[in-house]
Amino acid sequence: MGRHSVYVKEKLRRGLWSPDEDEKLYNYITRFGVGCWSSVPKLSGLQRCGKSCRLRWINYLRPDLKRGTFSLEEEDMIITLHEVLGNRWAQIAAKLPGRTDNEIKNYWNSYLKKKLIKQGIDPITHKPLSENHQVRNDTNCTDKASMLLMSKFPNMSNSVEIEQPFHFNKRIFNSEAITRQLTEVSRNQLVSKQVFDPLFLYDFQANMNPIGPYDGNQDFGICSMPNLTNFEHGHMTESDFSDSSTSRMSTSNRTNTMIRHHSSAGIHQMNEMLENSQELTWDADNKIDSLFEYPYDGIKNEEDFSNNNNNNNPLSSLL
DNA sequence: AAAGACACCAACCGCCCAACC
DNA sequence: TGGTTGGGCGGTTGGTGTCTT
User: Does any strand B atom come closer than 7 Å to the Cβ of A305?
Assistant: First the structure.
């Protein structure tokens, strides 16, 4: 039995998400938080599989998403991290607040890879194309990663650590034999990782004035979710709702908006935050739930969700 | 103006791992 | 201890917009 049969059997929807579906999912997660994804479709009234809901939330609806074009700093960082981590997009995304692995992966495949090739650099080895025959030295790769990042991004030196060396695929890495090959420093880093967590932005948001821009600086704000962004200004319109499914023009418009929000001043402020982020801690189990004041288990069925679904949500105006 | 090629990116697929029973 | 389930990840696909001829 393949997945297709599951979709057919349960008459699950596939493909692009409609604004209505987005709204249902958004309303549900913002009210009840992230819990068991497999139960989300049922409880939120969506005819999607849990995985699809999770993906949509993570890659599109999550309030901390930055979206828009990548800055030069981000671009540089992706290239540096890719040199160290390879195609481990989730780990790369973890170092870039507001960016998803999917977004970075797409950006890499559609733009950065070609850019490097144009510059005569092999996008896989990150060496000049003429030096492709050279075999990379992977030992001490974790240290190399940290050094690379520290040299290129001094502002992040204390908050970014590489979790795993380049070619140690997570699945292989659990092997004791391989672990033994690491240097003492690398092992320590892996064991006692103090990794910058992009989700600390949730904390930031929680402490932020929900109506006004951060510290009066309009360049710096959580502007990923158009509806939230516009809600900051006290109103929203139907056209503000993110809709990748009906119009690609909307994506372009959104992108243009985001460019305005992410000036270099904003990035500078972000860097300052990153510098200070070493002081922050985040309980992984409560990353998202703490953003939303509603516990996941506060809802038992779809009826509860409907009853609890008041009209205070920004999206409710779309109804 | 039309058709084909290309680019972009949201969403899906398949696999792995960990937790749970 | 083995099976099941859910979550996470990287690779890939396919739909749509844009560009080129």
Answer: no
Q: Does residue A212 form part of some domain?
A: no
Strand B atom within 7 Å of A115 CB: no
Largest Cα–Cα separation, chain A: 65
Same domain, A103 and A117: yes
Check if residue A60 sits with its Cβ under 7 angstroms from strand B.
yes
Task: Give the Cα separation of A240 and A243 in Å (integer).
Answer: 9
Q: Is the CB of A36 under 7 A from strand C?
A: yes
Q: Distance of CA A77 to CAs A85, A94, A118, A127, A184, Å?
A: 12, 12, 18, 16, 26
Among the listed residues A83, A95, A80, A74, the one whose alpha carbon sits nearest the alpha carbon of residue A163: A95
- What CA–CA distances, in Å, run from A65 to A24, A38, A77, A99, A304? 19, 23, 18, 6, 29
The pLDDT > 90 percentage for chain A reads 1
Is the same domain home to A56 and A73?
A: no
Residue A247: per-residue pLDDT: 33
Measuring alpha carbon to C1', the residue closest to nucleotide B13 is: A3
Q: What percent of chain A has pLDDT over 70?
A: 37
Phi-psi category of A157—alpha, beta or left, where left has phi over 0 and alpha has psi -120 to 50?
alpha
HSE of A207, CA atoms in CB hemisphere, 13 A: 6
In a domain, A244, yes or no: no
Q: What's the Å distance between residue A223 CA and nucleotide C3 C1'?
A: 45
Residue type, A144: K
Q: Which residues form the domain of A47? A: 11-63
Residue pLDDT, tens place only, A153-172: 555 433 344 333 333 333 32
38-97 of chain A touching strand C, CB 7 A cut-off: 38, 50-51, 54, 87-91
Structural domains in chain A (count): 2
Residue position matching structure tokens 């920004």: A314
